[in-house]
Amino acid sequence: MLFKDRTDAGKQLAARLAFLKDQPNVIVLGIPRGGVVVAAEIARALHAPLDVFLAHKLGAPFNPELAVGAVTSIGQVLLDEPLVAELRLTEKEIAREVEHQRKEIARRLKVFRGSRPPVDLEKRTVVVVDDGVATGSTMLAALRALRQQKPARVILAIPVGPPETMHRLACECDQVVVLDMPEPFWAVGRFYMQFGQTSDEEVIELLGLHIAGEG
């Protein structure tokens, strides 16, 4: 399967989530930045509010691209304990990276939300959306953190992801809606015709439209 762009992926996912249209207490959460574009199409189709949920990977000190865990916008830390042990990372090294990512998450939340408080997720049906997953480590942290907020139901909506990752994530939520699980997987961007970087400004605009009820 090949998506034209994130908007196209969102429309296709929205069609699969039509059973939630006009249902009470549904909220759509996009993982910034690209996931918000996908989520906005779903929120528009379902007539549901849109918000963001941030989860950042924790990089190894010598290789920031190597994820040794993740931290979420509500502060939960998820570590890949076997990898941490293998790399012999110290508590101080991990704490430094956690603090760095928490500050970055706080900065981005202020950019995206301004002074608007986060939405209460308790007893709500939460649809968590990204533009794709690869290893799924940050999404795993996001799903586990969301559970702590006691939603009635958590639905993961993903355009594309590898089978092994999607099956692992399925254990962390009530339902998974995924459009394609190709094998071999390669990278998320390989399944999009257009996969340019989403700007902060685009995320802010999409959130603003839905806050104002124009979506």
Topology, please?
Blueprint: H1 6-16, E1 26-30, H2 34-46, E2 50-52, E3 55-60, E4 63-72, E5 77-79, H3 81-87, H4 91-113, E6 125-129, H5 137-147, E7 153-160, H6 163-170, E8 175-180, H7 200-211
Parallel strand pairs: 1-2, 1-6, 6-7, 7-8
Antiparallel strand pairs: 3-4, 4-5
Helix pairs in contact: 1-2, 2-7
If you average the pLDDT, what whole number results?
91
What is the domain total for the residues? 2
CATH topology of the largest domain: Rossmann fold
| Strand line-up in the sheet with most strands | 2-1-6-7-8
Task: Give the C-level CATH assignment of the largest domain.
Answer: Alpha Beta
Structural class: alpha/beta
List the uncertain runs.
Answer: none
Helix content: 25-40%
Treating each run of at least 4 consecutive H or I residues as one helix, how many helices? 7
Percent strand equals 15-25%
Per the principal axes of the C-alpha atoms, what is the gross shape? globular
Account of the protein in words:
With about 220 residues, the protein is of the alpha/beta class. The protein has two domains: about 5-55 and about 115-210, Rossmann fold, CATH 3.40.50.2020; about 55-115, Ybab, Chain: A (2-Layer Sandwich), CATH 3.30.1310.20. It contains seven helices and eight strands. Helix 1 (about 5-15) runs parallel beside helix 2 and helix 2 (about 35-45) packs parallel to helix 7 (about 200-210). The model has no long low-confidence stretch (mean pLDDT about 90).
